[in-house]
Design goal:
By secondary structure, the chain is α/β, with parallel strands linked by helices. It has 2 domains: 3-223 and 404-417, Aldehyde Dehydrogenase, Chain A, domain 1 (3-Layer(aba) Sandwich); 230-379, Aldehyde Dehydrogenase, Chain A, domain 2 (3-Layer(aba) Sandwich). Helices cover 41% and strands 19% of the residues. The chain has 14 helices and 16 strands. The strands form 4 sheets. A 7-stranded parallel β-sheet has the order 10-9-11-8-7-12-13, sandwiched between helices. A 4-stranded parallel β-sheet has the order 5-4-3-6, with helices on both faces. The chain has a 3-stranded antiparallel β-sheet with strand order 1-2-16, with no helix packed on it. Strand 14 (393-394) and strand 15 (402-403) form a beta hairpin. Helix 2 (26-42) runs antiparallel to helix 5, helix 5 (75-89) packs parallel to helix 6 and helix 10 (240-252) crosses helix 11. The longest helix is centred in the first third of the chain and has 19 residues, at 3-21. The protein is globular and about 80 Å long. The N and C termini lie far apart (56 Å).
Length: 424
């Protein structure tokens, strides 16, 4: 079959499925999700067997560590995938929600109702948990989805997608509500991005190259997100013990993801007290530190270790996705914000301070999808926000921003109820 027809078959069947899925009862959708959650646990051996093949292939291709880490599943991660779906079941169905209503003087009754977007396209790299997260979110929000995962996870994704489709079939929901493009050929990408007659929204999940490629080539609306150059500003009024604990978590809890910390911006008034203990903490976690010249002056010879290097301009504005962190010394809140404005990606930014006024200014002025005070950037996550997962973290400034859950996969329509009124 020609590539053109191959992809259009996905589009046509997904569009047809969406017309039925949008009207499926909430109880049926929730039962389907519960079945998927249970089947993921029942089929852990099968999933891990396929995942092992993908991991071995990735190692033979000498792919980066962060790619292999995102690709890797184990019993704990599959249990988390299953639990995420159970959390989603507990959320109210957004479809049909009455957003607002009013009655006009002429008797017309106007309602603003939440409805599904229709067909979602998703292009993602490495992470097979995205397959379950997005599929479950789309089912709950009444959208069909076409998934295009990376070749490095193809065997795992096929296994997981088959589980999902079996559960759809058993609950009499069209199986093509969830489809996976099983041909990893990159030549399909541009055509996939041109299928605006079928796909209502395209979501890229991956690095800056993928996000930029989608932004430049998609004929349908697309989400910008996933590229996280994340900063934490440690203010002069910060509690040092609290700051070290938070910044360490933001860097090392899982360093291969988009909301992991990349740069600490440190006020010079607190640098001498903060830096020695923080550098020791980073060394304990095998984190390479890139510190600017100004910061070096606050250290004694005993504070210098093999993990510490002098920062260059390339160490700022970079999403490391690795055990590397850069530090910038500033003399004011304004300078900290200026640095974020210059180097940030609009993803996750944080301040650590006991000064409420300073914190409020930072939270109000900094332009990002999520801003945090006295806590870790790692919380910029749909599951942590109580959304039951996410399809992406959007840095867009329209439709949706931050973690995109089920409500962000809907739009609204107006229903106008009359009784013979005509416009004069």
């Amino acid at each position: 079959m020609k590539i053109d027809n191959y992809l259009k078959n996905y589009g046509r069947s997904s569009l047809e499925a969406s017309k039925i899925l949008c009207n499926v009862n909430e109880n049926v959708k929730n039962k389907t999700l519960n079945d998927i959650s249970n089947q993921l646990l029942d089929k852990i051996p099968e999933i891990l067997s396929k995942n092992k093949i993908d991991i071995n292939n990735a190692k033979q291709l000498d792919l980066d560590f962060h790619v292999i880490d995102r690709l890797t599943l184990n019993k704990k991660r599959i249990k988390e995938m299953s639990d995420s779906i159970l959390n989603l079941i507990e959320l109210p169905d957004p479809v049909g929600e009455l957003i607002e209503q009013k009655k006009l003087e002429n008797g017309l009754k106007i309602e603003k109702i939440r409805v599904p977007l229709g067909v979602i396209g998703v292009i993602y790299e490495s992470r097979p948990n995205v397959t379950t997260d997005i599929s479950a979110l789309c089912i709950k929000s009444g959208n069909s989805v076409i998934l295009r995962g990376g070749k490095e996870a193809i065997n795992t994704n096929i296994e997981i997608c088959n589980i999902i489709r079996d559960c759809l079939f058993n609950n009499e929901i069209p199986v093509n509500s969830v489809q996976l493009i099983d041909n990893p050929d990159r030549s399909l990408m541009k055509q996939f991005l041109s299928m605006n007659e079928y796909i209502d929204l395209m979501i890229p999940r991956g690095g800056s190259n993928l996000v930029n490629f989608v932004a430049n080539n998609a004929k349908m609306p697309s989400i910008t997100g996933g590229v996280g150059v994340c900063h934490t500003y440690v203010d002069k009024d910060a509690n040092i013990d609290k700051a070290i604990k938070i910044v360490t978590n933001a860097k090392v809890q899982r360093h291969t993801v988009c909301n992991a910390l990349d740069t600490v911006i440190l006020h010079e008034d607190i640098a001498k007290s903060f830096l020695p203990n923080f550098l020791t903490k980073m060394s304990d976690h095998k984190v390479d530190v890139r510190l600017d010249k100004k910061g070096i002056k606050f250290l004694s010879e005993d504070d210098i270790n093999s993990k510490l290097k002098l920062a260059t301009s390339e160490d700022y504005g970079k999403e490391f996705l690795d055990l590397i962190i850069s530090i910038k010394i500033v003399d004011s809140l304004d300078k900290a914000i200026d640095h974020i404005n210059k180097y940030g990606s609009g993803h996750s930014e944080a301040i650590i301070s006991e000064n409420k006024s300073t914190s409020e200014t930072f939270m109000n002025v900094v332009d990002a999808s999520a801003v945090f005070c006295n806590t870790s950037t790692r919380y910029n996550d749909g599951g942590e926000f109580g959304f039951g997962g996410e399809v992406a973290i959007s840095t867009n400034k329209f439709h949706a921003r931050g973690p995109m859950g089920i409500k962000e996969l809907t739009i609204y329509k107006w229903k106008v109820w009359g009784n013979g009124q005509i416009r004069e």
